[in-house]
Each structure stands twice: as structure tokens, then as C-alpha cells.
């Protein structure tokens, strides 16, 4: 947003035109005022001085808004996982062998990263998993249907394990932070 249309939208709110179109018009009007009365060179000078001043103003605005943008990004980055967690309506299920296997997988998979992942069981039956979080606190949300223990009661089936490993890999690759920070900015 910072590098895109962010400025244009914010400018509309603040009454600043970051595209420079308004200032060009204003400068042209200012220069036109003198046309006919003063030399052409003076008209041109008035216009150029005016556009330079406007450009400097726009740059100052852009620099000044930087910290505001950074704060907004941090807030969205921090708040989004909280909202997501609520929307997922996590449920408590007994820690049977499936849940234990999933937890173990998340712990082992996260090895090497200084973060901790908490397993969140969600009521979905679609058999989905997703990892999210911020500032080193992450959640691995797994649909309860994925956590059903194998028929022999020994851990999880291969499909569930693969999905959990896939999600944990996202975490290890810092995909969670990269994705959510990009989205927030
Ligand atoms: Zn993925």
C-alpha cells in the first residue's frame, strides 16, 4: 500500500494530492495570471518555481507519513491473528493419540526456529490446516477431522501428517511473517 495507491487515498483524506495533478493545475493558473503582463520567461519561472515548491511539499508529506504507515502495519500485523483465531472457533478435544502426534509433529517441525507453535483444534470437517500468528507466537490450526487417530490407534495417517508438516514448513520459511507483513503494509 505504501508504494501503491496508499498515498493517493490518504491524500484524498488529508486534502493532499500526491499525484501532483492538482499542484500542476494550481501552478499553471498562477503562471497564467502573469501572462501578458510580464515577460514569457518570467511566466515560465513562476511556473517552475511553483512546481518545485509543490514537489518538495509532496516529498515532505511522503516522508512524514512513513512512521504512521509503519505503525499501522504493525497494528494490523498484530491484530489479524487475534481476529483469525476467534473466527476459527477453536474447540477443546481430548488429547488422544492423534492430537499427541500432531503436537509432536509441530514441535519437531519447528525445530531450529526460536518460536513456539501451539496446536489449535478447529471444528472444520474439510480437513484443513493453517498456520498463523505474529511476533514469534504462532498457532497451527488443524481441523478435528484431520486429527482422528489411525485405525490401529497409533498416531496420525500419512495425509494428516503431510498437511501438518506442510504448514510447519511455512513457519520455518518465515512465510507466515512475510505473508502477513506484506498484507498489512
Ligand atoms: Zn501451503
Automatic annotation (TrEMBL):
<feature type="transmembrane region" description="Helical">
    <location>
        <begin position="58"/>
        <end position="80"/>
    </location>
</feature>
<keyword id="KW-0472">Membrane</keyword>
<protein>
    <recommendedName>
        <fullName>Peptidase M48 domain-containing protein</fullName>
    </recommendedName>
</protein>
<keyword id="KW-1133">Transmembrane helix</keyword>
<keyword id="KW-0812">Transmembrane</keyword>
